[in-house]
Amino acid sequence: MAPRIIAGMTVHEILARLESLGNDARRAHNTKAAAPDNQFGVKLGDIRAMAKKIKTNHELALDLWDTGNVEAQLLATLVIKPNSLSADELDKLTRSTTCAQVADWLNANVVAQHPEKETLREKWMKAKDRWAARAGWSLTASRVNKGADALDLPALLDRIEKEMPKATPEVQWTMNNTLGAIGIRHPKHRKRAIAIGEKIGLYRDWPTSKGCTPPYVPMWVEAMVKRQG
């Protein structure tokens, strides 16, 4: 099969362009953040700039994703058509994610825009796969932030209290986002959310720059509630 040409470039040429944009400092940063070896160390802003030039192209996105390269997958999330994916196809993409940064871009740019996201959320909330579970909790945190209609918040708090200490780091992040969202958005459950955060202690020693709020739930909830008030 002849290489697909997009915006004057083949997928191979796009990879070469991404590689040329890489730098050692960014690669070191990515490695520290547990990115796989198949990455070039490209700044996120440079990837966004490439996406603007390419624009939406579903087939290209799938080809880029299949390379397994971190930057190619990030670029794919910006040029794919969410509505052109079936729920099964999106499930497979989610489970083949390479690292947390890719997962977050996929969740924000593709999963959150998909018409069957609620069906997928319910499926992923039961998943043992770390990337599927991360996506499920990410969607749940979003629903909590938007009002939590039909969500059983006490049951979610029960699950978080029981499961978050032993969850993988990838899943802990979005579970913690859900816990924080409950504490911030739902005063009725704030005291328990804070108590769970204190009990588990996740991100208690998270390094933060001056003026930034750490993801440690007791501090995060307190800061956000003050900001709202």
Write the layout of secondary structure elements.
Elements: E1 5-6, E2 9-10, H1 11-21, H2 24-32, H3 44-54, H4 58-66, H5 70-79, H6 87-95, H7 100-109, H8 117-124, H9 130-145, H10 153-163, H11 169-185, H12 190-200, H13 217-228
Antiparallel strand pairs: 1-2
Nearest-angstrom radius of gyration? Answer: 19 Å
Please give the alpha-carbon distance between the first and last residues.
60 Å
Helix-strand makeup class: mainly alpha
Query: Into which percentage range does the β-strand content fall?
Result: under 5%
> Average pLDDT value?
93
Give descriptors for this structure.
229 residues; mainly alpha; 2 domains; two-stranded antiparallel ribbon; 13 helices; 63% helix; globular
Structure description:
This protein has 13 helices and two strands. It has 229 residues and is mainly alpha-helical. The protein has two domains: 115 residues, no CATH class; 91 residues, no CATH class. A hairpin with a 2-residue loop joins strand 1 and strand 2. Helix 3 packs across helix 5, helix 7 packs across helix 9 and helix 9 packs parallel to helix 11. The N terminus is likely disordered.
In short:
This protein has helices spanning about 10-20, 25-30, 45-55, 60-65, 70-80, 85-95, 100-110, 115-125, 130-145, 155-165, 170-185, 190-200, 215-229, and strands at about 5, 10. It has two domains: about 1-115, no CATH class; about 140-229, no CATH class.
